[in-house]
Amino acid sequence: MKKYIIAIVFLLTTWIISSGQPTDPLVSKCIRSTGSNAKYLKDFRIQLGKASFQGDLRFKANMTLWKNKKYRFSLCTADDSKGQLILYIRDESNKVVRSSVDEKNGKINSIVDFVCKKSGIYRLCFDFTNGQPGSGVGVVSMIK
């Protein structure tokens, strides 16, 4: 009887540990790109078709961020995507506080660090460049 109980406990433990691991290779790759000093918080899987018009960013998610904490946003685009994944972070007043797009030279960064100045709910807005179709992952981590 003890053998069966030990086997069941072992199987349950293995199942619990393995179910917490990401199975998507793009998610795993993106988590690895955050660096050793980053603590994983959340990932967003984004898959969008071609936009019918150039307007507001199409994928939006709200996230609570805390004052005086440094966050890292890692953006990974699938190889078969037409556009590159971009991110705009907006505060509660809908003001852009950080972006993956450098407005001066148009360069798109795949890693965006953000030091939160005020605790609150922030809107993370994702899309692909020029409204192109694509799939990708946005990973949010906290820097230790």
Structural notes for this entry:
- This protein is an alpha+beta fold and 144 residues long.
- It has a single domain, classed as Sandwich (Jelly Rolls), CATH 2.60.120.380.
- Helix content is 18%, strand content 42%.
- It has 2 helices and 8 strands, in the order H-H-E-E-E-E-E-E-E-E.
- A 4-stranded antiparallel β-sheet has the order 1-8-3-6. A 4-stranded antiparallel β-sheet has the order 2-7-4-5, with no helix packed on it.
- A hairpin with a 5-residue loop joins strand 4 and strand 5.
- The model has no long low-confidence stretch (mean pLDDT 89).
Span between N and C termini?
Answer: 46 Å
Number of domains: 1
Query: If you average the pLDDT, what whole number results?
Result: 89
Which fold name is given in CATH as the topology? Jelly Rolls
Mind summarizing the main beta sheet?
4 strands, antiparallel
Radius of gyration: 18 Å
Helix/strand order: HHEEEEEEEE
Number of helices: 2
Q: Characteristics of this structure?
A:
single chain; 144 residues; alpha+beta; Jelly Rolls; 4-stranded antiparallel sheet; 2 helices
